[in-house]
Amino acid sequence: MTPDDSMNSTSMAIYLQGLPLLLMRSNMLEVLDEDFVVIHGSSYTRGGGRGVYLMTGERVEFTSGPSRGAVYVRSGRSFLRRLSADGSEGALRCVRAPNSGR
């Protein structure tokens, strides 16, 4: 899979994070303090702070800033899933907001 426009180093996109819901109309409960915005040069902002992420293949690792240490795995063009400390897929999901970026 080639990097898509949402996570490459030249695109801007807003990513919304949330937990899956089974019994509500929405399929995700947004976790506002975890949302982030991808900006230029492999940088991101979150909650007033700024940092850098590294994407290698399907893995996205936040190496500095407010999300430092967070690791995600890409699943599709605009979907990330946060990995737990043991490397397993956790419940927190991350979806590129509609009409953000290209």
Biggest sheet strand order reads 1-3-4-5-6-7-8-9
Our estimate of the beta-strand percent is over 45%
For the record, the count of structural domains works out to 1
Q: Measure the end-to-end span.
A: 18 Å
Which stretches are poorly predicted, pLDDT < 50 over at least 5 residues? 1-6
Largest pleated sheet: 8 strands, antiparallel, barrel
Overall geometry comes to globular
Contiguous helical run count: 0
What's the total count of β strands?
9
Mean residue pLDDT: 76
One letter per element, helices H and strands E, the order comes to: EEEEEEEEE
What can you tell me about this protein's structure?
- There is one protein chain.
- The chain has 102 residues and is an all-beta fold.
- It has one domain.
- The protein contains no helices and nine strands.
- The chain has strands spanning 13-20, 28-30, 36-39, 43-46, 49-56, 59-62, 71-74, 79-83, 89-96.
- β3 and β4 form a beta hairpin.
- It is globular, with a radius of gyration of 13 Å.
